[in-house]
Amino acid sequence: MKWTWFHRLGSPKWFYELSGRWLPWFAVATVLLIATGLVWGLAIAPPDYQQGNSFRIIYIHVPASFLAQSIYISLAIAGVVSLVWKMKIADVALQQSAPIGAWMAFISLLTGAIWGKPTWGAYWVWDARLTAMLILLFLYFGVIALGQAISNRESAAKACAVLSIVGVVNIPIIKYSVDWWNTLHQPATFSVIEKPAMPAEMWIPLLIMVVGFYCFFTTVLLMRMRLEILRREAKTSWVKAEVARLVGKKHE
Amino acid sequence: MSRVFFLLILREARLLARRPAELANPLVFFAIVIALFPLAVGPETQMLRTLSPGLIWVAALLAVLLSLENLFRSDFEDGSLEQWVVSPHPLTVLVLAKVFAHWLFSGLALVLLSPVLAIMLGLPADRVPILLASLLLGTPVLSLLGAVGAALTVGLKRGGILLALLILPLYIPVLILGSGVLQAALQGLPTLGYLLWMASLMMLTITLTPFAIAAGLKISVGE
Protein backbone atom coordinates (compact mmCIF):
# COMPACT_ATOMS: atom_id res chain seq x y z
CA MET A 1 0.00 0.00 0.00
CA LYS A 2 2.77 2.34 1.01
CA TRP A 3 4.67 1.50 -2.16
CA THR A 4 1.76 2.17 -4.49
CA TRP A 5 1.40 5.60 -3.00
CA PHE A 6 5.10 6.22 -3.34
CA HIS A 7 5.13 4.92 -6.91
CA ARG A 8 2.22 7.05 -8.07
CA LEU A 9 3.55 10.21 -6.58
CA GLY A 10 7.18 9.67 -7.44
CA SER A 11 7.12 8.35 -10.97
CA PRO A 12 6.38 11.35 -13.21
CA LYS A 13 8.99 13.59 -11.60
CA TRP A 14 11.59 10.84 -11.59
CA PHE A 15 10.87 10.04 -15.24
CA TYR A 16 11.02 13.70 -16.17
CA GLU A 17 14.47 14.08 -14.67
CA LEU A 18 15.78 10.83 -16.11
CA SER A 19 14.43 11.51 -19.60
CA GLY A 20 15.94 14.99 -19.48
CA ARG A 21 19.33 13.35 -19.18
CA TRP A 22 18.64 10.81 -21.97
CA LEU A 23 17.10 13.19 -24.44
CA PRO A 24 20.26 14.96 -25.76
CA TRP A 25 21.97 11.61 -26.44
CA PHE A 26 19.03 10.29 -28.43
CA ALA A 27 18.70 13.57 -30.32
CA VAL A 28 22.37 13.55 -31.31
CA ALA A 29 22.19 9.87 -32.32
CA THR A 30 19.10 10.59 -34.43
CA VAL A 31 20.71 13.46 -36.32
CA LEU A 32 23.98 11.58 -36.92
CA LEU A 33 22.38 8.30 -38.00
CA ILE A 34 19.71 9.79 -40.24
CA ALA A 35 22.15 12.22 -41.87
CA THR A 36 24.66 9.41 -42.53
CA GLY A 37 21.98 7.04 -43.76
CA LEU A 38 20.37 9.62 -46.04
CA VAL A 39 23.60 10.77 -47.67
CA TRP A 40 24.85 7.21 -48.05
CA GLY A 41 21.54 5.84 -49.26
CA LEU A 42 20.51 8.68 -51.57
CA ALA A 43 23.87 9.69 -53.02
CA ILE A 44 26.52 7.01 -52.54
CA ALA A 45 24.70 3.66 -52.80
CA PRO A 46 24.63 2.29 -56.37
CA PRO A 47 21.33 2.45 -58.32
CA ASP A 48 19.32 -0.74 -58.63
CA TYR A 49 19.93 -2.61 -61.90
CA GLN A 50 16.18 -2.92 -62.54
CA GLN A 51 14.53 -0.02 -60.73
CA GLY A 52 17.22 2.59 -61.24
CA ASN A 53 17.08 5.35 -58.68
CA SER A 54 13.46 4.88 -57.67
CA PHE A 55 14.43 2.11 -55.26
CA ARG A 56 16.07 4.71 -52.99
CA ILE A 57 12.71 5.45 -51.39
CA ILE A 58 13.13 2.26 -49.36
CA TYR A 59 15.48 4.23 -47.11
CA ILE A 60 12.39 6.02 -45.83
CA HIS A 61 9.76 3.39 -46.55
CA VAL A 62 11.27 0.40 -44.77
CA PRO A 63 12.18 2.15 -41.49
CA ALA A 64 8.73 3.78 -41.35
CA SER A 65 7.02 0.42 -41.89
CA PHE A 66 9.16 -1.21 -39.18
CA LEU A 67 8.27 1.54 -36.75
CA ALA A 68 4.56 1.50 -37.58
CA GLN A 69 4.41 -2.17 -36.63
CA SER A 70 6.61 -2.10 -33.57
CA ILE A 71 4.93 1.01 -32.14
CA TYR A 72 1.59 -0.80 -32.06
CA ILE A 73 3.19 -3.63 -30.11
CA SER A 74 4.70 -1.10 -27.73
CA LEU A 75 1.20 0.39 -27.28
CA ALA A 76 -0.04 -2.97 -26.08
CA ILE A 77 2.97 -3.45 -23.78
CA ALA A 78 2.37 0.01 -22.31
CA GLY A 79 -1.31 -0.95 -21.97
CA VAL A 80 -0.48 -4.09 -20.00
CA VAL A 81 1.90 -2.16 -17.75
CA SER A 82 -0.66 0.58 -17.09
CA LEU A 83 -3.45 -1.94 -16.37
CA VAL A 84 -1.39 -4.24 -14.15
CA TRP A 85 0.85 -1.82 -12.25
CA LYS A 86 -1.35 1.28 -12.67
CA MET A 87 1.65 3.31 -13.76
CA LYS A 88 0.88 6.81 -14.96
CA ILE A 89 3.98 6.91 -17.14
CA ALA A 90 2.85 3.86 -19.13
CA ASP A 91 -0.39 5.63 -19.99
CA VAL A 92 1.48 8.77 -21.00
CA ALA A 93 3.67 6.62 -23.25
CA LEU A 94 0.63 4.92 -24.79
CA GLN A 95 -1.23 8.13 -25.54
CA GLN A 96 1.83 9.90 -26.88
CA SER A 97 3.20 7.15 -29.10
CA ALA A 98 -0.11 6.38 -30.86
CA PRO A 99 -0.02 9.52 -33.09
CA ILE A 100 3.64 8.86 -33.97
CA GLY A 101 2.70 5.32 -34.98
CA ALA A 102 -0.17 6.59 -37.10
CA TRP A 103 2.16 9.03 -38.88
CA MET A 104 4.68 6.26 -39.50
CA ALA A 105 1.97 4.05 -41.03
CA PHE A 106 0.89 6.99 -43.17
CA ILE A 107 4.47 7.69 -44.32
CA SER A 108 4.89 4.02 -45.12
CA LEU A 109 1.73 4.03 -47.26
CA LEU A 110 2.58 7.33 -48.93
CA THR A 111 6.16 6.40 -49.85
CA GLY A 112 4.90 3.01 -51.00
CA ALA A 113 2.39 4.71 -53.31
CA ILE A 114 5.04 7.05 -54.71
CA TRP A 115 7.32 4.09 -55.35
CA GLY A 116 4.51 1.94 -56.74
CA LYS A 117 3.62 4.31 -59.58
CA PRO A 118 6.89 4.00 -61.58
CA THR A 119 7.50 0.39 -60.57
CA TRP A 120 4.11 -1.30 -60.70
CA GLY A 121 2.32 1.31 -62.78
CA ALA A 122 -0.27 1.98 -60.09
CA TYR A 123 -0.34 4.05 -56.91
CA TRP A 124 -2.32 1.44 -55.07
CA VAL A 125 -2.89 -2.28 -55.50
CA TRP A 126 -4.86 -4.45 -53.10
CA ASP A 127 -1.81 -6.39 -52.12
CA ALA A 128 -1.91 -8.16 -48.77
CA ARG A 129 0.94 -6.17 -47.24
CA LEU A 130 -0.47 -2.82 -48.34
CA THR A 131 -3.90 -3.68 -47.06
CA ALA A 132 -2.52 -4.88 -43.73
CA MET A 133 -0.70 -1.57 -43.28
CA LEU A 134 -3.88 0.34 -44.11
CA ILE A 135 -5.77 -1.65 -41.46
CA LEU A 136 -2.99 -0.91 -38.98
CA LEU A 137 -3.50 2.79 -39.70
CA PHE A 138 -7.22 2.37 -38.95
CA LEU A 139 -6.38 0.61 -35.67
CA TYR A 140 -4.20 3.59 -34.69
CA PHE A 141 -7.08 5.94 -35.51
CA GLY A 142 -9.31 3.90 -33.21
CA VAL A 143 -6.93 4.19 -30.25
CA ILE A 144 -6.43 7.93 -30.81
CA ALA A 145 -10.17 8.58 -31.20
CA LEU A 146 -11.03 6.61 -28.06
CA GLY A 147 -8.37 8.43 -26.04
CA GLN A 148 -9.76 11.79 -27.11
CA ALA A 149 -13.43 10.89 -26.71
CA ILE A 150 -13.24 9.98 -23.01
CA SER A 151 -12.76 13.08 -20.94
CA ASN A 152 -11.85 11.38 -17.66
CA ARG A 153 -8.13 10.77 -17.94
CA GLU A 154 -7.99 7.62 -15.85
CA SER A 155 -10.86 5.98 -17.75
CA ALA A 156 -9.34 7.00 -21.07
CA ALA A 157 -6.05 5.40 -20.05
CA LYS A 158 -7.69 2.11 -19.12
CA ALA A 159 -9.96 2.06 -22.17
CA CYS A 160 -7.06 2.69 -24.57
CA ALA A 161 -5.04 0.00 -22.82
CA VAL A 162 -7.84 -2.56 -23.25
CA LEU A 163 -8.35 -1.55 -26.89
CA SER A 164 -4.67 -1.79 -27.79
CA ILE A 165 -4.42 -5.22 -26.16
CA VAL A 166 -7.48 -6.43 -28.10
CA GLY A 167 -5.91 -4.93 -31.23
CA VAL A 168 -2.60 -6.69 -30.73
CA VAL A 169 -4.33 -10.04 -30.26
CA ASN A 170 -6.16 -9.38 -33.52
CA ILE A 171 -3.19 -8.21 -35.59
CA PRO A 172 -1.83 -11.72 -36.35
CA ILE A 173 -5.34 -12.94 -37.23
CA ILE A 174 -5.91 -9.94 -39.50
CA LYS A 175 -2.48 -10.39 -41.08
CA TYR A 176 -3.02 -14.07 -41.88
CA SER A 177 -6.56 -13.58 -43.14
CA VAL A 178 -5.47 -10.72 -45.40
CA ASP A 179 -2.60 -12.81 -46.77
CA TRP A 180 -5.05 -15.59 -47.44
CA TRP A 181 -7.60 -13.27 -49.03
CA ASN A 182 -5.05 -11.98 -51.49
CA THR A 183 -3.75 -15.40 -52.54
CA LEU A 184 -7.37 -16.44 -52.96
CA HIS A 185 -8.33 -13.86 -55.50
CA GLN A 186 -5.12 -13.52 -57.46
CA PRO A 187 -1.76 -15.20 -57.36
CA ALA A 188 0.93 -12.87 -56.06
CA THR A 189 2.25 -11.17 -59.17
CA PHE A 190 4.81 -9.22 -57.22
CA SER A 191 5.97 -9.16 -53.68
CA VAL A 192 7.24 -6.17 -51.81
CA ILE A 193 9.88 -8.05 -49.88
CA GLU A 194 11.29 -10.41 -52.47
CA LYS A 195 13.99 -8.46 -54.20
CA PRO A 196 17.24 -9.60 -55.69
CA ALA A 197 19.60 -10.10 -52.76
CA MET A 198 20.92 -6.67 -51.79
CA PRO A 199 24.61 -5.92 -51.87
CA ALA A 200 26.17 -4.57 -48.70
CA GLU A 201 26.45 -1.00 -49.98
CA MET A 202 22.64 -0.98 -50.23
CA TRP A 203 21.64 -2.64 -46.97
CA ILE A 204 24.15 -1.03 -44.61
CA PRO A 205 22.66 2.47 -45.12
CA LEU A 206 19.23 0.88 -44.76
CA LEU A 207 20.23 -0.58 -41.41
CA ILE A 208 21.59 2.81 -40.33
CA MET A 209 18.30 4.43 -41.33
CA VAL A 210 16.27 1.85 -39.40
CA VAL A 211 18.30 2.45 -36.23
CA GLY A 212 18.10 6.19 -36.88
CA PHE A 213 14.32 6.04 -37.16
CA TYR A 214 14.09 4.15 -33.86
CA CYS A 215 16.23 6.85 -32.24
CA PHE A 216 14.01 9.49 -33.85
CA PHE A 217 10.93 7.79 -32.42
CA THR A 218 12.51 7.64 -28.96
CA THR A 219 13.49 11.31 -29.11
CA VAL A 220 10.07 12.51 -30.25
CA LEU A 221 8.30 10.22 -27.77
CA LEU A 222 10.42 11.48 -24.85
CA MET A 223 9.76 15.09 -25.86
CA ARG A 224 6.02 14.48 -26.14
CA MET A 225 5.94 12.58 -22.87
CA ARG A 226 7.82 15.30 -21.01
CA LEU A 227 5.40 17.92 -22.29
CA GLU A 228 2.42 15.77 -21.36
CA ILE A 229 3.83 15.18 -17.87
CA LEU A 230 4.21 18.91 -17.35
CA ARG A 231 0.62 19.38 -18.52
CA ARG A 232 -0.83 16.64 -16.31
CA GLU A 233 1.17 17.51 -13.22
CA ALA A 234 0.70 21.25 -13.71
CA LYS A 235 -0.61 21.68 -10.18
CA THR A 236 2.39 20.15 -8.43
CA SER A 237 5.10 22.38 -7.04
CA TRP A 238 7.98 20.75 -8.92
CA VAL A 239 6.29 21.40 -12.26
CA LYS A 240 5.66 25.03 -11.31
CA ALA A 241 9.32 25.39 -10.37
CA GLU A 242 10.40 23.65 -13.58
CA VAL A 243 8.17 25.81 -15.78
CA ALA A 244 9.40 28.95 -14.03
CA ARG A 245 12.97 27.80 -14.63
CA LEU A 246 12.28 27.08 -18.32
CA VAL A 247 10.46 30.36 -18.91
CA GLY A 248 13.08 32.33 -16.98
CA LYS A 249 15.87 30.85 -19.02
CA LYS A 250 14.18 31.93 -22.24
CA HIS A 251 13.90 35.57 -21.16
CA GLU A 252 17.55 35.99 -20.31
CA MET B 1 -23.85 -19.92 -12.15
CA SER B 2 -25.72 -21.46 -15.07
CA ARG B 3 -28.97 -20.45 -13.38
CA VAL B 4 -27.93 -16.80 -13.50
CA PHE B 5 -27.00 -17.30 -17.14
CA PHE B 6 -30.48 -18.52 -18.05
CA LEU B 7 -32.26 -15.98 -15.86
CA LEU B 8 -30.37 -13.21 -17.60
CA ILE B 9 -31.27 -14.57 -21.03
CA LEU B 10 -34.92 -14.78 -19.95
CA ARG B 11 -34.80 -11.17 -18.75
CA GLU B 12 -33.31 -10.02 -22.04
CA ALA B 13 -35.97 -11.95 -23.97
CA ARG B 14 -38.70 -10.29 -21.95
CA LEU B 15 -37.21 -6.84 -22.48
CA LEU B 16 -36.87 -7.36 -26.22
CA ALA B 17 -40.40 -8.71 -26.52
CA ARG B 18 -41.66 -5.42 -25.08
CA ARG B 19 -39.72 -3.37 -27.62
CA PRO B 20 -40.03 -5.28 -30.88
CA ALA B 21 -38.86 -2.28 -32.91
CA GLU B 22 -35.37 -2.74 -31.50
CA LEU B 23 -35.38 -6.21 -32.94
CA ALA B 24 -36.82 -5.23 -36.30
CA ASN B 25 -34.75 -2.13 -37.09
CA PRO B 26 -31.43 -3.88 -37.84
CA LEU B 27 -33.28 -6.36 -40.04
CA VAL B 28 -34.92 -3.60 -42.04
CA PHE B 29 -31.55 -1.87 -42.30
CA PHE B 30 -30.01 -5.12 -43.57
CA ALA B 31 -32.70 -5.46 -46.25
CA ILE B 32 -32.44 -1.82 -47.35
CA VAL B 33 -28.65 -1.93 -47.68
CA ILE B 34 -28.90 -5.06 -49.82
CA ALA B 35 -31.57 -3.38 -51.97
CA LEU B 36 -29.33 -0.33 -52.50
CA PHE B 37 -26.60 -2.28 -54.27
CA PRO B 38 -28.54 -3.42 -57.36
CA LEU B 39 -29.73 0.17 -57.71
CA ALA B 40 -26.17 1.45 -57.52
CA VAL B 41 -24.27 -1.08 -59.64
CA GLY B 42 -26.98 -2.13 -62.10
CA PRO B 43 -29.38 -5.06 -62.30
CA GLU B 44 -27.30 -7.57 -64.33
CA THR B 45 -27.90 -11.01 -62.83
CA GLN B 46 -24.43 -12.36 -63.48
CA MET B 47 -22.65 -9.44 -61.85
CA LEU B 48 -24.95 -9.42 -58.83
CA ARG B 49 -24.35 -13.13 -58.34
CA THR B 50 -20.59 -12.59 -58.35
CA LEU B 51 -20.90 -9.71 -55.92
CA SER B 52 -23.51 -11.32 -53.66
CA PRO B 53 -21.11 -12.94 -51.11
CA GLY B 54 -19.44 -9.62 -50.41
CA LEU B 55 -22.69 -7.64 -50.39
CA ILE B 56 -24.43 -9.95 -47.94
CA TRP B 57 -21.48 -10.01 -45.59
CA VAL B 58 -20.87 -6.26 -45.62
CA ALA B 59 -24.57 -5.59 -45.03
CA ALA B 60 -24.75 -8.17 -42.22
CA LEU B 61 -21.67 -6.71 -40.60
CA LEU B 62 -23.10 -3.18 -40.64
CA ALA B 63 -26.46 -4.37 -39.35
CA VAL B 64 -24.83 -6.17 -36.41
CA LEU B 65 -22.74 -3.09 -35.67
CA LEU B 66 -25.83 -0.90 -35.71
CA SER B 67 -27.72 -3.18 -33.35
CA LEU B 68 -24.80 -3.25 -30.90
CA GLU B 69 -24.71 0.46 -30.26
CA ASN B 70 -27.41 0.21 -27.62
CA LEU B 71 -26.35 -3.17 -26.25
CA PHE B 72 -25.37 -1.90 -22.79
CA ARG B 73 -26.93 1.57 -23.00
CA SER B 74 -30.17 1.02 -21.06
CA ASP B 75 -28.47 -1.20 -18.48
CA PHE B 76 -25.88 1.53 -18.02
CA GLU B 77 -28.49 4.25 -17.60
CA ASP B 78 -30.76 2.43 -15.14
CA GLY B 79 -27.87 1.19 -13.02
CA SER B 80 -28.15 -2.51 -13.83
CA LEU B 81 -24.51 -2.57 -14.88
CA GLU B 82 -23.41 -1.35 -11.47
CA GLN B 83 -25.39 -4.18 -9.90
CA TRP B 84 -23.63 -6.61 -12.22
CA VAL B 85 -20.22 -5.30 -11.26
CA VAL B 86 -20.88 -5.57 -7.50
CA SER B 87 -22.78 -8.86 -7.73
CA PRO B 88 -21.04 -12.06 -6.51
CA HIS B 89 -21.33 -13.68 -9.94
CA PRO B 90 -18.39 -13.31 -12.29
CA LEU B 91 -18.91 -10.42 -14.66
CA THR B 92 -17.54 -12.44 -17.58
CA VAL B 93 -20.41 -14.95 -17.29
CA LEU B 94 -22.97 -12.14 -17.05
CA VAL B 95 -21.69 -10.36 -20.15
CA LEU B 96 -21.50 -13.64 -22.05
CA ALA B 97 -25.18 -14.22 -21.23
CA LYS B 98 -26.04 -10.68 -22.28
CA VAL B 99 -24.25 -10.97 -25.61
CA PHE B 100 -25.60 -14.45 -26.20
CA ALA B 101 -29.15 -13.21 -25.63
CA HIS B 102 -28.54 -10.32 -27.98
CA TRP B 103 -27.23 -12.66 -30.65
CA LEU B 104 -30.08 -15.12 -30.10
CA PHE B 105 -32.62 -12.47 -31.02
CA SER B 106 -30.96 -10.04 -33.42
CA GLY B 107 -28.12 -12.12 -34.86
CA LEU B 108 -30.20 -15.20 -35.43
CA ALA B 109 -32.98 -13.18 -37.03
CA LEU B 110 -30.41 -11.76 -39.42
CA VAL B 111 -29.26 -15.28 -40.30
CA LEU B 112 -32.84 -16.35 -40.96
CA LEU B 113 -33.57 -13.35 -43.16
CA SER B 114 -30.40 -13.71 -45.23
CA PRO B 115 -31.51 -16.55 -47.59
CA VAL B 116 -34.36 -14.41 -48.91
CA LEU B 117 -32.03 -11.53 -49.74
CA ALA B 118 -29.35 -13.86 -51.09
CA ILE B 119 -31.79 -15.45 -53.51
CA MET B 120 -32.92 -11.99 -54.59
CA LEU B 121 -29.28 -11.26 -55.43
CA GLY B 122 -29.14 -14.39 -57.54
CA LEU B 123 -27.29 -16.77 -55.22
CA PRO B 124 -28.22 -20.31 -56.35
CA ALA B 125 -30.65 -21.96 -53.91
CA ASP B 126 -28.42 -24.98 -53.34
CA ARG B 127 -25.72 -22.70 -51.89
CA VAL B 128 -28.08 -21.34 -49.23
CA PRO B 129 -27.13 -23.95 -46.56
CA ILE B 130 -23.51 -22.81 -46.84
CA LEU B 131 -24.57 -19.19 -46.49
CA LEU B 132 -26.53 -20.10 -43.36
CA ALA B 133 -23.60 -22.05 -41.92
CA SER B 134 -21.14 -19.21 -42.52
CA LEU B 135 -23.47 -16.63 -40.98
CA LEU B 136 -24.24 -18.89 -38.01
CA LEU B 137 -20.54 -19.18 -37.28
CA GLY B 138 -19.68 -15.59 -38.12
CA THR B 139 -22.38 -13.48 -36.47
CA PRO B 140 -21.49 -14.56 -32.89
CA VAL B 141 -17.93 -13.36 -33.56
CA LEU B 142 -19.32 -10.04 -34.79
CA SER B 143 -21.55 -9.69 -31.72
CA LEU B 144 -18.78 -10.51 -29.24
CA LEU B 145 -16.14 -8.27 -30.84
CA GLY B 146 -18.66 -5.48 -31.16
CA ALA B 147 -19.60 -5.88 -27.51
CA VAL B 148 -16.00 -5.01 -26.58
CA GLY B 149 -16.39 -1.70 -28.38
CA ALA B 150 -19.89 -1.17 -26.98
CA ALA B 151 -18.58 -1.74 -23.45
CA LEU B 152 -15.78 0.77 -23.93
CA THR B 153 -18.04 3.46 -25.42
CA VAL B 154 -21.21 2.98 -23.36
CA GLY B 155 -20.44 5.93 -21.09
CA LEU B 156 -20.02 8.36 -23.98
CA LYS B 157 -22.78 10.62 -25.24
CA ARG B 158 -22.25 9.89 -28.92
CA GLY B 159 -20.56 6.54 -29.13
CA GLY B 160 -22.02 5.38 -32.44
CA ILE B 161 -19.43 6.52 -34.96
CA LEU B 162 -16.61 5.86 -32.51
CA LEU B 163 -17.87 2.30 -32.06
CA ALA B 164 -17.69 1.77 -35.83
CA LEU B 165 -14.18 3.23 -35.94
CA LEU B 166 -12.96 0.94 -33.16
CA ILE B 167 -14.62 -2.26 -34.25
CA LEU B 168 -14.76 -2.36 -38.05
CA PRO B 169 -11.01 -3.04 -38.48
CA LEU B 170 -11.36 -5.97 -36.09
CA TYR B 171 -14.19 -7.40 -38.21
CA ILE B 172 -11.97 -7.86 -41.26
CA PRO B 173 -10.97 -11.52 -40.67
CA VAL B 174 -14.63 -12.55 -40.32
CA LEU B 175 -15.52 -10.62 -43.47
CA ILE B 176 -12.72 -12.26 -45.46
CA LEU B 177 -13.53 -15.77 -44.28
CA GLY B 178 -17.31 -15.35 -44.49
CA SER B 179 -17.39 -14.02 -48.02
CA GLY B 180 -14.59 -16.45 -48.91
CA VAL B 181 -16.80 -19.42 -48.04
CA LEU B 182 -19.51 -18.20 -50.37
CA GLN B 183 -17.05 -17.28 -53.10
CA ALA B 184 -15.63 -20.79 -52.95
CA ALA B 185 -19.12 -22.30 -52.92
CA LEU B 186 -20.06 -20.28 -56.02
CA GLN B 187 -17.00 -21.61 -57.85
CA GLY B 188 -17.73 -25.17 -56.76
CA LEU B 189 -14.67 -25.39 -54.50
CA PRO B 190 -14.63 -27.20 -51.13
CA THR B 191 -15.80 -24.99 -48.26
CA LEU B 192 -15.17 -27.10 -45.17
CA GLY B 193 -11.76 -25.53 -44.49
CA TYR B 194 -13.24 -22.02 -44.29
CA LEU B 195 -16.06 -23.13 -42.05
CA LEU B 196 -13.61 -24.81 -39.68
CA TRP B 197 -11.56 -21.61 -39.58
CA MET B 198 -14.68 -19.60 -38.77
CA ALA B 199 -15.59 -22.09 -36.06
CA SER B 200 -12.17 -21.71 -34.48
CA LEU B 201 -12.49 -17.91 -34.64
CA MET B 202 -15.83 -18.26 -32.88
CA MET B 203 -14.34 -20.41 -30.12
CA LEU B 204 -11.48 -17.96 -29.71
CA THR B 205 -13.80 -14.97 -29.34
CA ILE B 206 -16.16 -16.84 -26.98
CA THR B 207 -13.28 -17.66 -24.66
CA LEU B 208 -11.33 -14.39 -24.80
CA THR B 209 -13.68 -11.46 -25.45
CA PRO B 210 -15.79 -11.80 -22.25
CA PHE B 211 -12.70 -10.71 -20.30
CA ALA B 212 -12.22 -7.66 -22.52
CA ILE B 213 -15.95 -6.83 -22.35
CA ALA B 214 -15.92 -7.14 -18.55
CA ALA B 215 -12.84 -4.91 -18.31
CA GLY B 216 -14.48 -2.35 -20.60
CA LEU B 217 -17.70 -2.31 -18.57
CA LYS B 218 -15.77 -1.88 -15.32
CA ILE B 219 -14.00 1.14 -16.81
CA SER B 220 -17.27 2.67 -18.06
CA VAL B 221 -19.11 2.05 -14.78
CA GLY B 222 -16.20 3.34 -12.71
CA GLU B 223 -16.17 6.66 -14.52
TrEMBL record, chain B:
<keyword id="KW-0201">Cytochrome c-type biogenesis</keyword>
<feature type="transmembrane region" description="Helical">
    <location>
        <begin position="130"/>
        <end position="154"/>
    </location>
</feature>
<feature type="transmembrane region" description="Helical">
    <location>
        <begin position="160"/>
        <end position="182"/>
    </location>
</feature>
<keyword id="KW-0813">Transport</keyword>
<feature type="transmembrane region" description="Helical">
    <location>
        <begin position="194"/>
        <end position="217"/>
    </location>
</feature>
<feature type="transmembrane region" description="Helical">
    <location>
        <begin position="54"/>
        <end position="72"/>
    </location>
</feature>
<keyword id="KW-0997">Cell inner membrane</keyword>
<protein>
    <recommendedName>
        <fullName>Heme exporter protein B</fullName>
    </recommendedName>
</protein>
<keyword id="KW-1003">Cell membrane</keyword>
<feature type="transmembrane region" description="Helical">
    <location>
        <begin position="23"/>
        <end position="42"/>
    </location>
</feature>
<feature type="transmembrane region" description="Helical">
    <location>
        <begin position="100"/>
        <end position="123"/>
    </location>
</feature>
<keyword id="KW-0812">Transmembrane</keyword>
<dbReference type="InterPro" id="IPR026031">
    <property type="entry name" value="Cyt_c_CcmB_bac"/>
</dbReference>
<keyword id="KW-1133">Transmembrane helix</keyword>
<comment type="similarity">
    <text>Belongs to the CcmB/CycW/HelB family.</text>
</comment>
<keyword id="KW-0472">Membrane</keyword>
<comment type="function">
    <text>Required for the export of heme to the periplasm for the biogenesis of c-type cytochromes.</text>
</comment>
<dbReference type="InterPro" id="IPR003544">
    <property type="entry name" value="Cyt_c_biogenesis_CcmB"/>
</dbReference>
<dbReference type="Pfam" id="PF03379">
    <property type="entry name" value="CcmB"/>
</dbReference>
